[in-house]
Every structure is written in structure tokens, then in C-alpha cells.
Amino acid sequence: MLSQKTCSKMAGSPLLRWFIQRSRVGPKARPEHVMSALVESVRRKRTRSLDKQLDLFLQDRNVTQIDLVSDLSCDGLIEPLGSSFCDGFRLRLKRNASEARNRFTVAHEACHTFFYELVPEIKFAPHGLDAEEEWLCNFGAAALLVPVSSLRRKVKKLPACLESLDTLASEYAVSLPTMALRLRSLGYWNCQLSFWHRMLDGSFALHRVYGGKRRSWRWDDDSVLKTAWESVKPLFGHACVYYEDSRGVRRYISISYELHRSADGVIALWGSGVRKPSDEPPPLFRAALRRPQY
Description:
Layout: H1 4-10, H2 14-23, H3 31-42, H4 50-60, E1 63-69, E2 76-80, E3 89-94, H5 99-118, H6 120-123, H7 131-145, H8 148-155, H9 162-172, H10 176-185, E4 190-198, E5 204-210, E6 218-219, H11 223-229, E7 235-244, E8 250-261, E9 265-272, H12 283-289
Parallel strand pairs: 1-3
Antiparallel strand pairs: 2-3, 4-5, 4-9, 6-7, 7-8, 8-9
């Protein structure tokens, strides 16, 4: 996934340029600010029901059909029902995905309709995947599902740790990665969330990472992963992680971290300001971490 900073600098494809120009937010606006403004402009009267808010958003974006598909090769996709935005859209959704994953997919795919509305000459013609568009739809989905006004109040009272992340994700009915990305994109947390898969030989391999640039991160001392795997309690500390650049040079960063065992590996939250909460995480939190939703 492209980082927010990277996406802001790029905005180079014709699709993105016309998307920004025709949005009326401002010709020099950053792409993510344009998407946020569009999501907020569509948001109807405030409702405490997250599902109701999502239903209202789909109505406003002219998504008239939702089909559950068993053999879908992706999480979901949006299909125009005609040759213009007014003809509406069909959303095809992967059957049996988790509730949190489905909610994010629905919001993500609905955000694609902004591009169909503003840049129809590209979107209604044969076209390839635009990485910037995909990133912005991820950004828009998080903005819809996790409104900044309410999140700002809640996050001030919470330390940067996995327990807080789990609490917020549960309250907004989103996955841990979605909440982590939202907190980072708004500048509330300067953290990355990563999942480390435990291999048959007992070593650990980076499975997925959310936040910041995609790197093949490694631990300077990877014994902390084994320690976390063998512990029933979260592990906090300070360490160095690194990646190798295109010339094979190791690039190190110093981090504070929290590690927690999951069902098939270790979940890591690292960055600046990660710290242990005052109390031990409750049993339900431990259960949730053992079933992470990617």
C-alpha cells in the first residue's frame, strides 16, 4: 500500500489530476484531502448506527445492488450498470468474509464511484488498475467508517498500544489495520502495525505491514519475536529494525514496540510513543488478538 506522503507527492496520472480539478475542493489540494471532503459532503445526518451510515452512503453513491459471490477472486468490486453515473452500480462482495472486512470493502468500493462521477471518460472506458485511486479509496473508506470528529475525542484519552487499538477498532467495527492506518493518516499515532508469521522451523517472517512505506523489515535482534511467542503477556521495549535498500545497504531505525502472540505468529505495533497501558489487557482483548482480521 502506498503511504500518505507518497500518494500526496505522486498524483500524476490523468485520472488523479482530473479527479482533483473537477472536485472543486481546490486545484492544488492534496488527493487525500479531496477524498475526505467528498466523503464528508455526502455524509448525511449524523446517526449512531454505523451500518445505517454506510447504507445511507451507498444510497447517495447510487449503489443499488449488492451481490454475494462465493468464488470471487478479490474482496469485492464495483460494476457500473450503464454508461453514466446516473445508471447506478452493482457491488459484488466476497461471501463468508469477516464482518469488519466486508464493511471496509463496501466503503472502499463505494468510494470508486467518485471517480466514475468525476472522470467518466476514463472510468467508463477500458482501463487498467490505478494504484493512486486504490490508495485513495482505502483512505476514503477509513474516513467514512472512522469519522475524525469522534475519533479525536477518544484517542486523546488512550495510550498508543495494541489494547487501545483493539478498543477503538471494536467501537467502530473495523479491523485493527484499518484503525491503525486511520490513526496514522490523521497524525494521531506515528506507528506501524505488522504481522509476523511463525514458520515451521520456529523462525518468523514478515507477513503484512500497515502504515509507512512498504519495506522488508527485519529485527536487529529477532529473539524478541520468540520471547513474545512464548509469553501470554504483551512484550514492551525498545529495539532497532532495518531494511536493505536497492544497493544492499542496511537502513536502521530506532523504535519503541509492543509485541503480542496471535494464533499463528506475533502482532507488532512499533513507532514513537508506544507504551504500556496502566492495566493489563482484559481476556477478551487477548482473544481478539489471536484472531486478527487482515
